Amino acid sequence: MITPLIMAGGVGSRFWPLSRKDRPKQFLNLVDKDRSMIQATVDRISKLTTHDNIFIATSQEYVEKMQEHLPEIPSENLTVEPMRRNTAACIGLAALYIEKKDPEGVMVVLPSDHLIIDEERFLDTVQAAVEVAEREDNLVTIGIEPSHPETGYGYINYENKYSEVSGHEVFEVKAFTEKPNREQAERFLQAGTYLWNSGMFVWKVSTIRKMFEMHMPELHEGLERMKSAIGTTEETEVLKAEFEKLDDVSIDYGIMEKAEDIYVIPGSFGWDDIGSWPALERVEKRDKQGNVIRGHHIGIDTKNTIVHGNGKIITTVGLDDIVIVDTEDAILICDKKRAQEVKEIRNLLKSKGLENCL
Q1: Cα separation of 58 and 141, whole Å?
Q2: 309 near 296, Cβ under 8 Å?
Q3: How is residue 355 annotated by DSSP?
Q4: How many Å separate Cα 32 from the centre of its chain?
Q5: Rounded Cα distance, 62 and 77, in Å
Q6: Domains delineated in the chain
Q7: Buried b (16+ CB within 10 A) or exposed e, 339-355
Q8: What are the tens digits of pLDDT across the range 99-150?
Q9: Does the predicted model carry a pTM greater than 0.90?
Q10: How many CA atoms lie within 13 A of 247 on its CB side?
């Protein structure tokens, strides 16, 4: 049975001031004006399974909002992390609940905030990955065919062809590579054997449990103690105590960089991770001056600029390559090339005691 796990516990700090602690990126209508990012993700993957089989990993602070956005998902399918401990712990905890429902289920791990343009091609790729994952103890990831030398993504280096499933080539993974500098990214693009790391994974729940036992024994032991408490009156207390002890480690570092039998399927379905404000230029129509405008804007000699309004008229003169975001209580104005640093603004606000702006 296909059992998706959608990871939706992040804060989306690079989309401040629109994204807040009580309204993180996955709850925003950044791409679809009618559906939030998490709703679009559930809508998409539900075409391969039923809502009863979809699990959502989130934080306690977002449970109520998640239920508002996704009333079709059973409340028991919300796996709640007591505190943030990165993706290895997140996936490990969710695997316990999925294992209880279906010990032979195939987990399809997805981020909650990606754009997928060619939905049919995406679902076809996921289905091929499921078929590979069902063979023995395989770990499968979906890599994105790079269109330019991107420095903001990790990369997957692949080598020998493993098989072909429903028209999709499947390759053995040679190595996972951290975000490169510009020169490295250009070499990766020229080599033709590198894919962007999308953060999408497919494996049997029994396989990932074995991998935790083999490569992350301390996490495995903690999961076993949590497993014994699930369904008892001590569940909340034990999960909090054990989860707090877990290392803050990504699934990439904890498992994917160490395990064998890892395979990748190249994906080409119009993907974007919508990681920061400049991503809107890749999904929204630009005007004749190259601007992306949401809201009321009047400008003179303004080009290549992103304007996200909140009802007020925003006027600009002589701007190029700027991001302007207006919300009810904060305004962001930044050089588009430095949009990744918006998360540092949040840290600065916090250090100055301006928690109400976060």
Answers
A1: 22
A2: yes
A3: G
A4: 17
A5: 14
A6: 2-272 (3.90.550.10), 277-357 (no CATH)
A7: beebeebbeebeeeeee
A8: 999 998 999 999 998 999 999 999 999 999 999 999 989 999 999 999 889 8
A9: yes
A10: 13
How many C-beta atoms surround the C-beta of residue 68 within 10 A?
10
CB of 280 closer than 8 Å to CB of 306? yes
Radius of gyration of the chain from its Cα atoms, rounded to whole angstroms: 21
Q: Strands, E, within 113-234: which ranges?
A: 115-116, 139-144, 155-165, 168-177, 194-204
Place of tokens 């080009």: 303
Question: Alpha-carbon distance 3 to 1, whole Å?
Answer: 6
Cis? peptide before 103, omega within 30° of 0: no
3-state class (DSSP) for residue 68: helix
* DSSP annotation string for 218-245: HHHHHHHHHHHHTTSTTHHHHHHHHHHH
pLDDT (tens digit per residue) in 186-245: 999 999 999 999 999 999 999 999 999 999 999 999 999 999 999 889 999 999 999 999
Distances in Å between the Cα of 323 and the Cα atoms of 113, 319, 349, 354 are: 21, 10, 19, 22
Residue type, 220: H
